Amino acid sequence: MPAIPADIASADDYEPHARQRLDPAVWAAIAGGSADEHTLAENRAAFARIRLNNRVLADLSGAHTGLELFGQAMEHPILLAPTAWHRLMHREGELATAIGASALRATMVVSALASQELEAIAAKAVSPLWFQLYIQPDRGFTHALAQRAEEAGYRALVVTVDAPVTLRNREQRAAFRLPAGIEAVNLRGAPPPPAPRAAPHESEVFKGLLDGAATWADIATLRQHTRLPMLLKGIMTPSDALRAIEAGADGLIVSNHGGRVLDTQPASIEALPRVAEAVAGRVPLLLDGGVRRGTDVLKALALGARAVLIGRPILHALAVGGATGVAHVLKLLRTELEIAMAQTGCPTLDAIGPDVIWQP
Ligand SMILES: Cc1cc2nc3c(=O)[nH]c(=O)nc-3n(C[C@H](O)[C@H](O)[C@H](O)COP(=O)(O)O)c2cc1C
User: Fold this and answer.
1) What is the mean pLDDT of residues 16-37?
2) Which of 94, 200, 300, 336 has the fewest Cβ atoms within 10 angstroms?
3) Which residue has the CA at smallest separation from atom 7 of ligand 1?
4) pTM for the predicted model, two decimal places
């Protein structure tokens, strides 16, 4: 079992160690964002700008971090965000991640681009799993994949809707290619996208999107094909949030994909309050993007999220310490959340309200 380096005291401390261990092109692919990476930086900067109020002498007897989401009891509100190809970080890939998540009884969202079979991951996991889907050009394959996840015991579907096309310059400059032997194994057998229709223009982007990309109608159809709670990931505006609920979403993940899709979008934490106001509690909101501290988790909950998801720090910890690293980084975040709750006088997650946020 790999030892955790002694100088790791926070989630961010895993980053330099991971960078040292990984191939530079792989590093560029995981660390990078879209285009000039303004949104990537904003996800962190926006959390830092939000100030907290302390609250002293509160009665914290019986304090806990438990919650219930979609009828599922969770010990804490920290989930693992879906991220592709964990075998780039560690030879056991998602199997190691699932073991680490289970040690902290954290819900893991397994990516559609996982490098291990979803059934094999389920066999390792003790804590609940959710499955993330990208709607594939072949809708029959997409529905069958959702069915497969349901049969394997996954307890929710996360449909990522914000990434039909991407522009990742850092990844391009580093000439990142998936190494031989690592692939999205759960998409094996997916029929190839149909040949593009003759378009009235020569745009590669639009030709590629015309026949394959998902629309709102696909969400409503998918809703009919699964009994699992269905969340949409990548919702950043009140109007999309309302549309998603209309299309049958049971939950929303306010996310800009970790700054990896549309550059100069706002930070997800800045987008959250408006979405929360529009949704007005009709469905639970989750948030990801730049969550690196227990105080970030607290801020997200104060501004309307029920839970958060963690992306890159999980990958860093996996690269450095395998399952042990994943368990450790989750433990650090959970402990920091408990400290932040104590310092702001919140014995339960429900007690974390807008009043913990300092107003200038
Ligand atoms: C290397 C990498 C791969 C990702 N792969 C996926 C994916 O397969 N599906 C998905 O919905 N989101 C994916 N994401 C986005 C994450 O789910 C999440 O939105 C983001 O990482 C959160 O931001 P953070 O990294 O700042 O915590 C990926 C992110 C990274 C960094």
Assistant:
1) 98
2) 200
3) 83
4) 0.97
